[in-house]
Write a sequence for this structure.
């Protein structure tokens, strides 16, 4: 583990930023006291359960709940008719249409009805008595099937957004995005080498350990309280209210601890059903998904089919890049093709570019964000073709990337159109090139692969409140759920401003009625955006502390400075005054000391990661074993380096899972055949070596301490890094992920002339 | 004049036109003028959008001033993990 600091001289003066204190919530997490959503109980609580579609695609002819309602212990049953009609275009992710089927079911596992009963078993038995008459329809499960001219339509009236076609004909193509710059034909004509290949990836689940769960208690006053785990409880409040047709203020959401999200908990699934069941039953209703439900009904990330064509000169200079991308959106449209188009060539300054991206509707669950959504699949072809070019011209693959890497001032591709601010891609490449792991000799059947990844990051709105207690301690309350160590990061930033030890700060995640609005934790935004809100609140607190000291000293405010957690009289006329001395007399100097920081942020700055994979292929079985893995990532400034390293390692491990094992497997009828961790094989600790990390620090000038988001970009390079290492080991290119033993062995046998 | 680039979420309202030029002092007045030229755009934006104003991405735009701005790009709402 190491930290490489670039142009970050300010860091030398930090006392708390960059340190590694024990997280405040650590003890409760390890001793089992932390309360996750499924741990919450209430008096008179009953249990809700969802009846889900057994078909991938079918019309709902009728739903009869009469028999179910008469079953023992049943207190309430709901179906789509209990909810208002959805708006015509409610925007992604189309929650109201997705969360309970109305006219059609569009994937196996889509909710059709829900039951609440005294026990979970009674609810299950009652759900089995709901009679749903379906008319089965042909299913559409692959991109090729969905894009075929005579394809069955998942939505009968879906018109492609952004299509060049003048004839508005319904199809399964929800959106077409097209970007170009320069002259693509001229660019390829200038190239000495042109490579074009097609790549595919499969649907993947985020794989969080904690299933979706919530408890809703709807009162006679028409208000409801929800306890749930999510990546944003304000999102839960507004999304639930929207689906119910309620005013937002009728709902209070209390955040429980979260057992993993990775993008999959940026939306809701159960909450409106639980609120409505609770309203009907006049009881608190708890709902907890099974793992089967999590796989079948909650967001996978999109499977893809991508063709990339890249031209380069013998010098390594890239002259042209062309990409055709199709992303599986699932049953309702999302932005995934568009985002993939933004990312596919984002690491490189290519003069001639053409990108065409499609959003494809199929009979699969709605694709939902998964850690830098769309970017890993887009990096896979680009980084693999670059590896091929490096081999062709006998150039170090890092030098090839350094030659073409984007830099400050280069125009961003895709829809952004702006110029790159200060970025750290070059530094991540140099960090890997200089790493001792890059020089370790390899044995037969072992290979080494390099890949780089980009993610744009997101900023949005955040709020923080700081309250000082009489004994000089601070409670820092934010609206961002702690999904990766953000509590301690917030405490560190507050400590740096106020000048008190991190241990004297208690970071708290407030509910929707105790802290200001905060957007969902997505796009690696919490430490950046909520961090700015905390710093702003802390600066206000410091101003107030100086003011109180000036009252006590009977001097002008300008004569009081705040240094290292103490008030200092500028002329030395008074002895320094500690924060405890000031807070102890707060009532006598104006009352309680508190402050709010609340803002819509921007300027988050993009993130880059370069990774080095060493692996070994067993030529008898095709099994790939990761020997060493090294990741260098630009964090701007690492507020708490241990949690930055954790994010980097977590992203890599999930990316390796994408590369080697994970995939949704459907049968001909569109039924998911591996909805459990036994058959959906994610990497576990025993599968992998320790992931070596290098934190590169190229400070983001838009954050008070130089932070840029670190949560996502680590997942972007592994698909390509692993593919390139496999090629280095056995001389075959694998362009279909996951690169499972069966595919590796097949490719190896083809290379060796065996069947 | 501000160069306005329309993402795929708006091109259906403009008969495929991808780029227009407008005078506007704020995002609000820009959308009002766009809706006058291409009725329905303002309603379509109600379901969410983002903007890149001279390359700087705004996740929740609405009332930004556009003095000295040369380019505005309409984006679909941003999503991350």
């Amino acid at each position: 583990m190491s930290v490489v600091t670039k142009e970050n001289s300010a860091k030398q003066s930090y006392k708390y930023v960059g340190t590694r204190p024990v997280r405040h919530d650590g003890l409760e997490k390890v001793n089992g006291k932390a309360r996750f959503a499924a741990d919450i109980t209430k008096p008179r609580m009953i249990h809700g359960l969802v009846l889900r579609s057994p078909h991938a695609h079918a019309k709902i002819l009728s739903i009869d709940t009469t028999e179910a309602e008469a079953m023992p212990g049943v207190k309430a049953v709901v179906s789509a008719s209990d909810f208002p009609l959805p708006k015509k275009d409610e925007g992604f992710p189309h929650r109201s249409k997705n969360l309970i089927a109305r006219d059609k079911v569009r994937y196996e596992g889509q909710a059709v009805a829900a039951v609440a009963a005294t026990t979970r078993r009674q609810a299950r038995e009652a759900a089995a008595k709901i009679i749903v008459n379906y008319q089965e329809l042909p299913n559409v499960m692959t991109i090729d099937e969905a894009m075929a001219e005579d394809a069955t339509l998942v939505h009968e009236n879906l018109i492609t957004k952004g299509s060049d076609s003048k004839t508005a004909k319904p199809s399964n193509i929800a959106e077409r995005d097209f970007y170009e710059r320069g002259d693509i034909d001229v660019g390829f004509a200038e190239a000495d080498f042109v490579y074009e290949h097609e790549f595919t990836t499969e649907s993947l689940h985020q794989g969080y350990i904690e299933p979706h769960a919530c408890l809703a208690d709807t009162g006679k006053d028409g208000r409801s309280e929800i306890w749930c785990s999510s990546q944003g409880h304000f999102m839960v409040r507004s999304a639930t209210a929207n689906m119910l047709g309620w005013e937002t203020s009728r709902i209070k959401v209390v955040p429980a601890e979260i057992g993993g999200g990775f993008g999959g908990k940026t939306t809701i699934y159960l909450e409106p059903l639980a609120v409505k069941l609770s309203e009907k039953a006049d009881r608190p209703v708890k709902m907890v998904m099974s793992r089967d439900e999590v796989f079948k009904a909650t967001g996978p990330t999109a499977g893809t089919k991508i063709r990339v064509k890249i031209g380069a000169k013998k010098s390594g200079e890239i002259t042209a890049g062309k990409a055709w991308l199709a992303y599986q959106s699932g049953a309702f449209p999302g932005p995934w093709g568009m985002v993939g188009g933004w990312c596919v060539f984002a690491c490189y300054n290519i003069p001639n570019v053409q990108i065409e991206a499609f959003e494809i509707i199929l009979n699969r669950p709605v694709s939902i964000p998964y850690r830098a959504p769309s970017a890993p699949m887009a990096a896979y072809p680009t980084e693999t073709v670059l590896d091929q070019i490096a081999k062709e011209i006998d150039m170090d693959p890092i030098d090839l990337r350094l030659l073409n890497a984007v830099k400050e001032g280069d125009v961003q591709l895709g829809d952004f159109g702006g110029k790159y601010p200060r970025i750290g891609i070059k530094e991540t490449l140099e960090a890997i090139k200089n790493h001792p792991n890059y020089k370790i000799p390899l044995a037969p059947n072992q290979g080494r692969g390099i890949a780089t990844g980009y993610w744009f990051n997101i900023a949005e709105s955040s709020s923080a409140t700081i309250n000082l207690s009489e004994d000089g301690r601070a409670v820092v309350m934010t609206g961002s759920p702690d999904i990766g160590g953000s509590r301690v990061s917030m405490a560190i930033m507050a400590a740096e401003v106020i000048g008190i030890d991190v241990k004297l700060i208690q970071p708290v995640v407030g509910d929707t009625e105790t802290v200001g609005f905060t957007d969902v934790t997505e796009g690696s935004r919490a430490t950046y955006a909520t961090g700015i809100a905390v710093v702003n609140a802390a600066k206000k607190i410091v101003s107030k502390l100086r003011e109180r000291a000036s009252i006590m000293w009977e001097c002008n405010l300008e004569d009081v400075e705040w240094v290292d957690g103490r008030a200092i009289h500028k002329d030395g006329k008074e002895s320094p005054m500690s924060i405890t001395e000031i807070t102890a007399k707060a009532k006598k100097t104006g009352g309680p000391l508190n402050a709010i920081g609340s803002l819509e942020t921007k300027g988050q700055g993009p993130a880059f990661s370069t990774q080095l994979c060493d692996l070994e292929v067993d030529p008898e079985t095709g099994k790939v074993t990761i020997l060493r893995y090294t990741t260098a990532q630009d964090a701007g400034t690492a507020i708490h380096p241990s949690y930055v390293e954790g994010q980097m390692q977590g992203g890599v491990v999930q990316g390796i899972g994408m590369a080697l094992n994970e995939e949704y497997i459907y049968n001909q009828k569109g039924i998911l055949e591996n909805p459990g961790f036994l058959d959906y094989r994610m990497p576990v600790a025993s599968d992998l070596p320790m992931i070596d990390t290098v934190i590169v620090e190229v400070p983001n000038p838009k954050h008070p301490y130089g932070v840029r988001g670190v949560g996502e970009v680590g997942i972007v390079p592994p698909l390509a890094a692993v593919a390139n290492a496999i090629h280095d080991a056995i001389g075959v290119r694998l362009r279909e992920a996951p690169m499972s033993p069966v595919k590796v062995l097949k490719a190896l046998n083809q290379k060796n002339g065996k069947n | 004049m501000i160069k306005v680039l329309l993402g795929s979420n708006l091109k259906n309202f403009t008969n495929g036109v991808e780029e227009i030029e407008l005078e506007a002092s704020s995002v609000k007045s820009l959308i009002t003028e766009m809706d006058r030229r291409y009725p329905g755009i303002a309603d379509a934006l109600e379901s969410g959008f983002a903007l890149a104003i001279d390359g700087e991405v705004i996740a929740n735009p609405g009332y930004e001033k556009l003095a000295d701005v040369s380019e505005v790009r309409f984006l679909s709402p941003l999503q991350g993990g």
